[in-house]
Design brief:
The structure holds two protein chains of two kinds. Chain A has a five-stranded mixed β-sheet, with helices on both faces. Chain A starts with a strand and ends with a helix. In chain A, strand 1 and strand 2 form a beta hairpin. In chain A, 36% of the residues lie in helices and 16% in strands. Chain A is of the alpha+beta class. In chain A, helix 2 crosses helix 5. The mean pLDDT of chain A is 95. In chain B, the strands form four sheets. In chain B, strands 3-5-1-13-10-11-12 form a seven-stranded mixed β-sheet. Chain B has a five-stranded mixed β-sheet with strand order 7-17-16-15-8, sandwiched between helices. A three-stranded antiparallel β-sheet of chain B has the order 4-2-6, with no helix packed on it. Helices cover 27% and strands 23% of the residues of chain B. Chain B is α+β, with helices and mostly antiparallel strands. In chain B, a hairpin with a 5-residue loop joins strand 15 and strand 16. Chain B contains 14 helices and 17 strands. Chain B is globular, with a radius of gyration of 28 Å. The model of chain B has no long low-confidence stretch (mean pLDDT 92). The chains are: A alpha+beta, B alpha+beta. The interface between A and B is large, with 41 and 32 residues.
């Protein structure tokens, strides 16, 4: 067993896991953070996307020990008690998600993009979400959701 | 006494007799007695616009999806829950000589194993019960499960699968549906023919109409096998309690059917089976029947623990149902102006190893195969055959997309050959209000032509075509 300590959604969390445990497995079964999903287990579908030190990663491909000592953000940590993230708001309003299984991953990939590039073109959004598969929607409302969220976030920045 | 007070009229009190009647009503059979037709029914007015059209309607589950709070099966856990994995045959056709699970059972962390012979009634299926839950005598496709393991972790269960020894006697498989339908073909099941369902639709006289046609078009179209690939793999949790009842949390879409199937395969009254459906992470027709639920139930019975089973992506591809590959022969007789006079269709559906929803698919493909066109003479034959491949079942459209590919491809070929605009030939032949379908149904609210016209105008068919 290996001891792993992470800062997850702002709080320090520790667990003792077998060395082959993936970050995804640790988050889901040890820390009860089930927002990140197991879709393919080989890094193709993006349902397991979380942010490690601000970068989106496939948590199914990263060992828990590799994330030791680092900052991890999961979907559960995106909204605060006061407010949803603009992406969560626009995705709800536009019904961007159907079955919802890909949602947490897509929202986190989109967040990474908007953090780095506050005013992306549609092509840039498509590129940023290339690692996240959605089987239900055909992506249209997802792209619209990201565009709208960028607009809201920029509006706030202008006002500030 | 004040005469102005108005006394309430006396209400009839329930008598013991009336209460008994009410009790008898409750005991009436759930099925209503048949009524003599014709019944007076309320027919909705065609093309009536409901107030919902054009309104925004938020999804009731949309917020939780975005917050990552939606609980799918794999997000649920129970105290002392263990994990199950199924060993897949990896061989398309074979007789099973022996299965030895002793080494797997001896592994630390493994709590139980299960083979097909331990399942009370080892066969199921939505229409034909031809599919074993775990193959016990014969393997009919490479994705057939042959044994299952329950262990304290998923990883140990996976490792234990490698310790199961199965001895096979290979049998020559049949993969090509055109081979499989022949009389002297290798048989996938102990039946006289591999064809397990067929349908014929006839209207008018095709041969006479072919003789009168100016042009005859004969083509073959084929489509491939397609996997549903739901983002959420099949997942279930079974809990067998001390009271001989079993509860199942499952990603299954059709729980009432699944519950009846569970009772059948476990050979127990249906009231002892509780099926709980939660949010499904994508179905597309692939989660319409049981998969490993009874296997998990029996492993739970053996261990006294809740048992979770989640398909790997590989399990999804090799073992869950897929879309039927079609081989479609179309012969169409057309007048000199481009009017379709007759169409003869032969569909061969590759059903894979088990029936699943093939009968439904066959029926729907059949009635839709001539396309949305006024064709006075139609002859359709359709067959579905067993092959030693992953079984095919329900998938969005039940056979409709396959035949659409064929008839629309042929419409384009006909237009090209006759030098007619592809839109024009469709406008010339398409259904109109009260058109007669190939099976004699009189169609209402038919807007094919309007839709085509609007679409053509919107994207500038004339200018860009």
């Amino acid at each position: 067993m290996t001891d792993v300590t992470l800062t997850v959604n702002g709080k320090e969390r520790s667990a003792s896991v077998p060395p082959e445990t993936t970050l995804l497995e640790m988050l889901r079964s040890k820390l009860n953070l089930t927002g990140a999903k197991l879709g393919c287990d080989v890094g193709d579908c993006g349902a397991c996307t979380v942010l490690v030190a601000g970068k989106s990663v496939n948590a199914c491909l990263m060992l828990a020990v590799q994330a030791n000592g680092r900052d991890v953000l999961t979907i559960e940590g995106l909204a605060t008690a006061e407010a949803f993230h603009p992406l969560q708001k626009t995705f709800e309003e536009l019904a961007s998600l159907q079955c919802g299984f890909c949602g947490p991953g897509i929202i986190l990939s989109a967040k990474t993009l908007l953090d780095e590039n506050p005013d992306p073109t549609v092509q840039e959004i498509k590129d940023a979400l290339a690692g996240n598969l959605c089987r239900c929607t055909g992506y249209t409302k997802i792209l619209e959701g990201v565009v709208d969220a960028a607009r809201i976030m920029n509006g706030k920045q202008d006002a500030a | 006494m004040d005469d102005k007070v108005r006394v309430a009229e006396q209400q009839d009190l329930d008598t013991l007799e009336s209460l008994r009647e009410a009790d008898a009503d409750l005991r009436l059979p759930a099925v209503v007695e048949p009524v003599a037709y014709p019944l007076e029914t309320l027919t909705p007015v065609a093309r009536q616009q409901t107030p919902a059209v054009g309104q925004r309607a938020p999804r009731p589950d949309g917020r939780l999806h975005g917050l990552g709070q939606t609980k799918y099966i794999d997000d649920m856990t129970f105290p002392d829950m263990i994990h199950a994995k199924v060993l897949r045959a990896g061989i398309a056709s074979a007789r099973i000589i022996s299965i030895d699970v002793s080494e797997a059972e001896a592994m630390p962390g493994v709590l139980a194993t299960l083979v097909g012979k331990e399942i009370p009634v080892n066969s199921y299926g939505p229409s034909i019960q031809d599919q074993p839950l775990l193959a016990d005598e014969f393997v009919r496709h490479a994705g057939d499960g042959v044994a299952a393991v329950a262990a304290v972790s998923e990883q140990i269960a996976k490792d234990a699968l490698a310790k199961i020894k199965v001895e096979y006697e290979p049998i020559e498989p049949v993969f090509d549906p055109l081979e499989a339908i022949k009389e002297d073909s290798i048989k996938v099941h102990p039946t006289a023919s591999n064809i397990y369902a067929s349908k014929i639709v006839k209207k008018g006289d095709v041969e006479k109409a072919f003789a009168e046609s100016a042009h005859i078009f004969e083509d073959q179209y084929r489509t491939q096998m397609v996997e549903h690939v739901p983002m959420e793999p099949h997942a279930s949790i079974a809990m067998w309690d001390a009271n001989e009842r079993v509860s199942l949390w499952s990603s299954l879409g059709r729980i009432t059917l699944g519950r009846a199937d569970m009772a059948r395969v476990l050979n127990m009254p249906v009231n002892r089976v509780r099926m709980i459906a939660t949010i499904v992470g994508g179905n597309f027709g692939g989660k319409n029947e049981l998969t490993t639920e009874p296997v998990l139930a029996l492993l739970s019975k053996k261990t006294g623990r809740p048992v979770k089973g989640v398909y790997s992506r590989e399990d999804e591809f090799i073992s869950s149902t897929t879309r039927h590959p079609f081989i479609m022969d179309y012969k169409t007789g057309v007048s000199a102006e481009g009017k379709i006079l007759a169409r003869k269709v032969r569909l061969i559906l590759d059903g894979g190893a088990y029936c699943s929803w093939s009968e439904t698919t066959l029926g729907k493909a059949c009635i839709l195969s001539p396309g949305p066109y006024n064709i006075p003479n139609v002859h359709i034959e359709a067959y579905v055959t067993y092959t030693n491949k992953t079984m095919t079942g329900a998938m969005r459209g039940f056979g409709a997309p396959q035949v659409c590919f064929a008839y629309e491809s042929q419409m384009d070929d006909i237009a090209r050959k006759l030098g007619i605009d592809p839109l024009e030939i469709r406008m010339m032949n398409a259904f109109e209000e009260f058109a007669d379908s190939p099976t004699g149904q009189v169609l209402e609210s038919v807007v094919v032509k309007d839709s085509l016209k609007i679409a053509a105008d919107r994207f500038g068919w004339k200018e860009n075509g």
